[in-house]
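Input sequence (253 aa), recorded before submission:
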Amino acid sequence: MTQAGSPNDPQIEFEKWKIKIELFKWSIVSVLLVVVTIIIDAGFRDRSEGIKEVESYGKYATELVILNDTIGPRYRLAQYFANVTASEKLKRGWISYFNVLQREVDSLKQITLINDNIIKTSSDSDKVEKSVRENEEIKQSLTAPVILPNNIQQSNSIPTVFIQILNSSLKTRAANLQSKLLLTGFLVPGLELVNDRTLDNNEIRYYYESDYPAVSDLRILLEKEGLQTIIKPLFDHASKVKPGVIELWIKNF
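Predicted structure, token format:
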């Protein structure tokens, strides 16, 4: 006769199924949340510019979130954008989505604890094997890498853009620009306030000829945001930086 609380107790299996049902419901909510966030955010933008931004944003939302049933990449992506997104409306959406995913992660961890107990105490080899397999699947799901959509991947590496601003009054607009560049596939670590009185124009500085395609793409994106720049190659200083590093120096918008 099965004892209550034992690994073979039907109540334990019932609890695991309850958790899985809740995970499914949270997944549906999370997808709807992302879609609604994109639609609402688009409604507060200028129509033509809003469409362009939502198209680039939608590439991430569709391929990395909506069509991705792996929790790990979605969790880390939501965590990142919940902290770096400049738009307050959009940021609140990412924070809400991250909270949904956090509950899902917590539930998965709860399942692993139940499975750990079965592995340690059960004499049923089939149950033990099932629990081990389930825990391994959960582990792989939580630690799966984020893979960028093909249309924003670079041949060897993702270009990194360091934004330098000459005046603190530019910080808000530069932060908004940072978020948009992130959504189009660039890595943008942050903003740096610098003092360079010799700077006459907004500049895109790069150090390797192989980075020119990314520089050209960056310039086009900046023009769409109303930021005019000149391209300044610095091949003589290439030894100081790694390939893929681009600097955006902003004097004014």
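Checked by second reader. The first helix runs from residue 10 to 43.
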